[in-house]
Write a structure and sequence with these properties.
With 267 residues, the chain is mainly β. The chain contains three helices and 19 strands.
Length: 267
């Protein structure tokens, strides 16, 4: 993987690039996101949840957890926990309990008895690790987001069924949106009206920008059009520094999507 360049932008470009999540604002958990959806009129997008929690007894370490059809498992760490390259192997690092103030809620992509393989929010893109089942709490999500860069569209799926296909503003050739498998890392309140009511901060990091405005990182967000809704139009456009921009009505439909929900970005 190409080492990201360390680049700073002039202040005039700041509004259109990936932003560092503000620690003070924190995140909404899956439950809080659902509650917010009820308050914003999006309750029709929140399906009844199966009782995955019944498979995980309080205080016990599950051997395996089966996700119902159309649902994806999410592992939320119990604070900062050790990470492993292989189940039962030697510890090779830690998974932070919080990232920019938000809890580490990570999609589960593999299982062994007493172990879960999860995606990580940190660089490099595509990082994964094994964690002990005893160190995480398991929940689930019925949602999945797919961004098709060639079509310049964002699609939202619920229980495997497409429920939204929206034109999107994507990264330019100079600062492309990175492809790969990611997830919703946190939900941040909007710093201004142009971003819409909230920002979905993803686990993707720009591979063209290593340091956005001196923040030490350049994460990819999903947010409003920043005044360029006309350019996005009904067909999408390449106009950002890597972030995904949506028209405000389509962005509002992402409000119920919980932290940890998988995101696929394809070329």
């Amino acid at each position: 993987m190409r080492t990201p360049s360390r680049r700073r932008r002039p202040a005039s470009a700041r509004s259109s690039g990936p932003r560092r999540p503000r620690i003070a604002l924190g995140i909404l958990t899956a439950a809080a996101a659902s509650a917010a959806a009820l308050a914003t009129g999006c309750s029709h997008d929140v399906p009844a949840r199966p009782t995955v929690a019944r498979q995980v007894q309080a205080g016990a370490a599950p051997e395996t957890v089966a996700a119902p059809a159309g649902w994806s498992l999410i592992a939320t760490t119990k604070g900062t926990i050790p990470r492993y390259a292989t189940p039962g192997g030697r510890k090779d690092g830690i998974v932070p309990g919080r990232w920019y103030g938000g809890l580490s809620s990570l999609p589960v992509i593999g299982q062994r008895a007493g172990w879960f393989r999860v995606r990580l929010v940190t660089r490099p893109n595509g990082s994964t690790a094994w964690v002990r089942a005893a160190d995480v709490t398991i929940t689930d999500t019925p949602y999945r987001i797919v961004v098709n860069l060639a079509a310049e569209q964002l699609r939202l799926y619920r229980l495997g069924k497409q429920i939204m296909n929206a034109p999107a503003g994507i990264g330019t050739k100079q600062d492309p949106t990175p492809t790969g498998q990611y997830f919703v890392a946190m939900l941040e309140e909007s710093p201004s009206a142009g971003y819409g009511p909230f920002i979905l901060v993803t686990s993707a990091h720009s591979e063209a920008i290593g340091d956005w405005e001196g923040s030490g990182d350049a994460v990819i967000g999903i947010h409003g059009p920043l005044g360029e809704g006309g350019l996005i139009g009904t067909g999408g456009a390449a106009l950002s520094h890597g972030c995904i921009r949506l028209q405000l009505p389509e962005l509002a439909r992402l409000r119920p999507v919980p932290v940890g929900t998988p995101i696929t970005i394809t070329a």
